Amino acid sequence: MNKWPPKIIDAIAEKDDLHIAPFRDDGKTHGTLTWIWSVRVDDDLYVRGYNGPQSRWYQAAIRQKAGKITAAGSSYDVAFEGVDGPINDRIDQAYQAKYSGSPYLGSMISDRARAATVRVAPRTESAE
Prior knowledge:
alpha+beta; single chain; 7 strands; Pnp Oxidase, Chain A; seven-stranded antiparallel sheet; globular
């Protein structure tokens, strides 16, 4: 997967305005933009489904593997990749740091949400 340019991932990571829209089943049109929490771990961007693998956007992202996001005032064509394993501990820490104090934090670091973790990457290197 491609990497985010530093300026762009910095801008996305400091905001709380990411909206995600995987492609619909036709592979051409985007679904409805859905606001979602995002976190950065190293130079990668991650999102999770609050409702776990039952989240509609998550199911579409895993099935279609692509779509778009809007964040930090811009739109990006992106690729989606399901994530599992030890990286989830670091993603939990990033959620705790960014969203501490939120009553929803516990749900976002639960086993249910961890099972719906997705890495979001630009589809082109020239995302800057």
